[in-house]
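Q: I'm writing up a methods section and want to include an example of the input and output format. Could you take the sequence below and give the corresponding predicted structure tokens, formatted cleanly so I can copy it straight into the document?
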Amino acid sequence: MQITANRATCIGAGQCVFADPDAFDQDDDGIVLVIRPEPGVSDEIARAREAVQVCPSRSLKLVETE
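A: Here is the clean output for your methods example:
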């Protein structure tokens, strides 16, 4: 599983960072940075899913990888 972020549509609300501070950060302009693109254990995946769900601009996605 991999986290992807569309930085062009991110509005800088920071909800992803609150939901999963180990996977997300924000740059100086407040735009999302994915710092852990591949969550491994179930707890990390659950937090990443929560971050995707709470993103107000729908700029985050979880993509299944093989």
